[in-house]
């Protein structure tokens, strides 16, 4: 790698900050593009360059990519995802950036098309990347432990219940730390390992199994209840519609998949659901129940 910085978008989010921390630990110069420069400064101090701006502000975007070696492209689920990420990719090409590593949607939201507005948006960006004269890889993480599984864990801690549309639907959950490690590996590698990489955890775990794992971790009973999935709102905001579609696709078993991509690239096993649950519930399990 050259001494030119790696640009990271979405750097103040759950995943972006992990990528930045790893790049800095490897001694890589890092620039972050953010609408929240104060938050970035609080997180990273003087270990990174901070480029304040917004995807919709062409001048700030062009300034951010100037002199950059490679780009980690990450932005939240929103109606602007395609517009924002295409603008960033085009700016990167114009600035002679050598490589883009995109954090994309889950494989089961993208293929087949038409089942997920979020997946379709990511697919549009992937197609655009494929049309550009630049090295690019799209990472397709399965359901994140730190998002959907963490929500279930919080639900159980407060209610002793796992509620799902299909208790036997399995998910190949992946942890954000494993996603970040693969992203950094692809940013720093001499060559890419394909145009798309489907990232999953090592095993498929159903909601019913999650209830059992939570019961064991908390040392108390946890009920497993089925409820029909919510109706996808046609007039709701983009994110809520997207999440409702995720729930239906997961209930249909679409996320019940595993791959060896993480193990192959990192030469180690990805994090397990059981390990994540134990880490998350340790404080709750340590607090004794109140006895009047």
TrEMBL record:
Cited Gene3D superfamilies: NAD(P)-binding Rossmann-like Domain (3.40.50.720), UDP-galactose 4-epimerase, domain 1 (3.90.25.10)
Coiled-coil blocks: none
Cell membrane keyword on record: no
Highest taxon, organism lineage: Bacteria
Domain called NmrA-like: residue spans: 5-234
Keyword terms of this UniProt record: Plasmid
PANTHER family: PRESTALK A DIFFERENTIATION PROTEIN A, PTHR43162
Descriptive protein name: NmrA-like domain-containing protein
Phylogenetic placement of the source organism: Bacteria, Pseudomonadati, Pseudomonadota, Alphaproteobacteria, Hyphomicrobiales
